[in-house]
Specification:
By secondary structure, the protein is α/β, with parallel strands linked by helices. It folds into 3 domains: 2-239, Metallo-beta-lactamase, Chain A (4-Layer Sandwich), CATH 3.60.15.10; 249-359, Rhodanese-like domain (Oxidized Rhodanese, domain 1); 362-462, Rhodanese-like domain (Oxidized Rhodanese, domain 1, 3-Layer(aba) Sandwich), CATH 3.40.250. The protein has 15 helices and 28 strands. The longest helix is centred in the middle third of the chain and has 16 residues, at 158-173. The N and C termini lie far apart (66 Å).
Length: 474
C-alpha cells in the first residue's frame, strides 16, 4: 500500500492518494480541483484511479471529484446522508471498499457537516484488524475539531451539529493509539479555530494534546467548539452548494477564462460592472495601477481574500505579471470563481504612458508614521487585522476595523485628512487601500511592513480587550 499526502498551502488543504501496487488501483480522497498532480503520480507508477471520496461537502474550496470522474472514469463516493446532483455511491457506517492489499472502511462522523465521514485505511499485508491510518476530513484536525457553525444558512444549526460532533469525536478516540491521523486541513484554515501546523499525528497524541478530545461533558464540549470561531467568508456557502452540483470542469473554465484583453477591453468591461483584480505584490501595485481596481496579491492567501472581497456572480478581469495569469485564474477556480472574463494582455506594461487611467497609493514607513502622529499630520491609524490580533498588541491610538468589515464602516473614516491603514505585514492593508480608493478615498496611506515594522522600530504599542471607533469622522 502507498499513502501519499498532498498539501496545498494557500488553502491549508490536504488531499490523499491511496494505491495498491499489486493491482495498480488507486483512490483519491478530498482532491483539490486542479488534479494534474494525482494524474501524474498515477501515470508514473502505473496506477489507475478508480475511486474518489469526499469526506464531506467542503465549504472552503471546490473539490476535484468532477474533474477526476471526467479524466479517469473514477466512481464518486459520499456519505450516506449526502444529496448531490451527480451519480455517486452512498456509503454508510461500516461499508468497505477493498482493492488488493488496501481496505478502506467508512465511519460516519457527522458534526462539521451532517454527511461527514472518516475513512479507516488498512494495509492488509500488515494487519486486517489494526488500521494504518484514519482520514478524518474536517471532523478531527491536528489540535482541533471541525467547526459546527457553517450551515446555519441552509437550515442546520450549530447546536445540532455540535451534538453530532461530540459523538463522532468519541468514536474516533476509541481507535488504537498508533493509528495515524490525516485531516483535510492544517493551520490557516477557517474550518476550525486552532489547527496545528503539523499535517499528521496519531490518535494517541491527539488524546493527549487536542483540547477537544479531553474528558468533558456533552454540554461543555458543545459550548467549547461553538465559541470563538473565526468569521467565515461569504464564499463558503457558494462552494458548499457547488460541491453538490454537476458543474463544469476546471479545464472548461480555464479555456473560457484565459482570454487576453486589451487595455480598452478591460476598461470597457470595468465600465459595465466587471471587477478588476490586480494580483501583483503590494509594492508594485501601489507604485502604479489602473484606477478602481482591487489588489489581492498572489503571494499570500489569494484565494481566501478573493473569495472575501470579490463576487462570484459578476465578471472578473485579472491583471498579473505576464505569465502569471493562469495561476491567478486557476486559484480562483479552486474556490469556484469561474466568472473570469479574461486578463490584461501584457500586464501593466500594455498601459504605456496613459497617465489618465493610472493611480498610485501613498506609502509610509513606521518611523515616518511615528513622527507624523506626533505632529498631527496623520488623523488616524486604522488596523485592518482581526480583533484578536489587535487586542494582542497594536499601534498606540489605532482603531481596529477588520478587513472583511471595512466597507461596512467607511462612515467612520476621515475623508479630508490623510489616514494610515495597516495589517500585520502589508498584505491585507494593500487590499484595504485598494477597496477604499474605489470608495472615493484619495487620502489613504499604507504602512510599509505593517505592525511588524512598527514593532521592529520599538515604537509605542498597546494591548486592550476592546476596540473603538475612529475619533474623527468627516
Amino acid at each position: 500500500m502507498k499513502l501519499k499526502q498532498y498539501y496545498l498551502g494557500c488553502l491549508a488543504h490536504a488531499s490523499y492518494l491511496i494505491a495498491d501496487e499489486r493491482t495498480g488501483t488507486a483512490a483519491i480522497v478530498d482532491p483539490q480541483r486542479d488534479i494534474d498532480q494525482y494524474l501524474a503520480d498515477a501515470e508514473a507508477n502505473g496506477w489507475k484511479i478508480q475511486y474518489v471520496f469526499l469526506t464531506h461537502f467542503h465549504a472552503d474550496f471546490l473539490a476535484g471529484h468532477i474533474e477526476l470522474r471526467e479524466k479517469t472514469g473514477a466512481h464518486i463516493y459520499l456519505g450516506a446522508r449526502a444529496e448531490a446532483e451527480y451519480d455517486f455511491n452512498a456509503v454508510k457506517d461500516g461499508d468497505v471498499v477493498e482493492f488488493g492489499d488496501v481496505r478502506m472502511t467508512v465511519l460516519e462522523t457527522p458534526g462539521h457537516t451532517p454527511e461527514g465521514i472518516s475513512i479507516l485505511v488498512y494495509d492488509l499485508k500488515v494487519s486486517d484488524t489494526q488500521p494504518h491510518a484514519v482520514l478524518t476530513g474536517d471532523t478531527l484536525f491536528i489540535g482541533d475539531v471541525g467547526r459546527p457553525d457553517l450551515l446555519a444558512s441552509i437550515g442546520v444549526t450549530a447546536d445540532e451539529l455540535a451534538d453530532m460532533l461530540y459523538d463522532s469525536v468519541k468514536r474516533l478516540k476509541e481507535l488504537p493509539d498508533a493509528t495515524l491521523v490525516y485531516p483535510a486541513h492544517g493551520a490557516g484554515s477557517m474550518c476550525g479555530k486552532s489547527l496545528s501546523k503539523e499535517t499528521v499525528s496519531t490518535i494517541g497524541e491527539q488524546k493527549k494534546f487536542n483540547y477537544a478530545l479531553q474528558p468533558m461533558s456533552r454540554s461543555e464540549f458543545k459550548a467549547m467548539v461553538t465559541a470563538d470561531q473565526p468569521e467565515a467568508p461569504d464564499y463558503f456557502v457558494h462552494d458548499a452548494i457547488l460541491n453538490r452540483k454537476d458543474r463544469s470542469s476546471l479545464d472548461e473554465t480555464l479555456q473560457k477564462s484565459l482570454k487576453p484583453l486589451s487595455v480598452d477591453d478591460v476598461l470597457r468591461l470595468q465600465n459595465t460592472g466587471a471587477q478588476v483584480v490586480d494580483v501583483r505584490d503590494a509594492a508594485d501595485y501601489e507604485g502604479a495601477h489602473l484606477r478602481d481596481v482591487t489588489n489581492v496579491a498572489l503571494d499570500g492567501k489569494y484565494a481566501t481574500w478573493c473569495g472575501t472581497v470579490l463576487s462570484h456572480d459578476q465578471p472578473i478581469v485579472v491583471i498579473a505579471e505576464p505569465g502569471g495569469e493562469e495561476e491567478a485564474v486557476t486559484r480562483l477556480g479552486r474556490i469556484g470563481f469561474d466568472n473570469v472574463a479574461g486578463y490584461l494582455d501584457g500586464g501593466m506594461r500594455s498601459v504605456g504612458s496613459r497617465l489618465d487611467i493610472l493611480a498610485r497609493t501613498e506609502r509610509i514607513t513606521a518611523a515616518t508614521l511615528a513622527e507624523q502622529l506626533e505632529s498631527g499630520t496623520v488623523s488616524a491609524v486604522v488596523d485592518v487585522r482581526t480583533a484578536k490580533e489587535w487586542q494582542a498588541g497594536h499601534v498606540d491610538g489605532s482603531v481596529n476595523i477588520p478587513l472583511n468589515h471595512l466597507l461596512e464602516r467607511t462612515s467612520e473614516l476621515p475623508r479630508q485628512t490623510p489616514f494610515v491603514v495597516h495589517c500585520e505585514g502589508g498584505y491585507r492593508s494593500a487590499i484595504a487601500a485598494s477597496l477604499l480608493e474605489q470608495g472615493g478615498f484619495d487620502n489613504v496611506v499604507d504602512l510599509v511592513g505593517g505592525f511588524k515594522a512598527w514593532q521592529a522600530y520599538h515604537l509605542p504599542e498597546s494591548e486592550t480587550a476592546a476596540s473603538g471607533r475612529v475619533a474623527q469622522t468627516v
